[in-house]
Amino acid sequence: MGLSSFFKNLFGTAKESATDLANQAESTFEQAKEAAAPYIDQAETFAEETLAKAKEASEPLLNTAAEYASQAKETVSEYVEKASDSISDVIDSVKEKAGELTGETKTAISDTVADVNEKTVIAKDEIADEATDKE
To answer: What is the C-alpha R_g of the chain?
Structure first.
C-alpha cells in the first residue's frame, strides 16, 4: 500500500499546486487589468483628441476645395457657353456657304440646260435644213 499512498500524495500535491498556480494567475491578471486601466483611458483620450484635431485641421481644406470646385464649375460653364457659340457660328457659316454653293449649282445647271437646249434647237434646225436641201 505504500505505492498507492505515494501516488495519492504525488498527484494530490500536483493538484494542489495547479490550483494554487491558477489562483495566482487569476490574481495577477486582475492586478494587470487594474494597472492597465489608466493607460487604456489615456489612449482613448489621446485618440479622441487627435481625431478632433484632425477634423479641425481638415475643415479649412475642405472649404477651400469646395471653393475651388465652385470656381472650376463657373470657368467651365463660361467655356462651354463660348464653345457653344463658336459651334453655332460654324454651323451658320456652313449653312450659308452650302446655300451659296447650291444657288451657284442651280444657276450653272440652268445655264447648261439652256445652252444644251439652244444647241439642240440649232442642231435640229441644221439637220432639217440639210434634209430639205437633199430632197
So the answer is: 54
State pLDDT tens for residues 75-133.
887 777 777 778 888 888 887 877 777 777 777 777 777 777 777 777 777 777 766 76
| Cell numbers that stand for 100 in this block | 451659296
Phi, psi of 100 (to 5 degrees): -65, -45
For the record, the C-alpha cell of 96 comes out as 450659308
Residue 135 and residue 129: Cα distance in Å, rounded?
Answer: 10
Q: Residue 134, exposed/middle/buried by CB under 10 A (0-12, 13-18, 19+)?
A: exposed
The number of residues making up the chain comes to 135
pTM for the complete prediction?
0.35
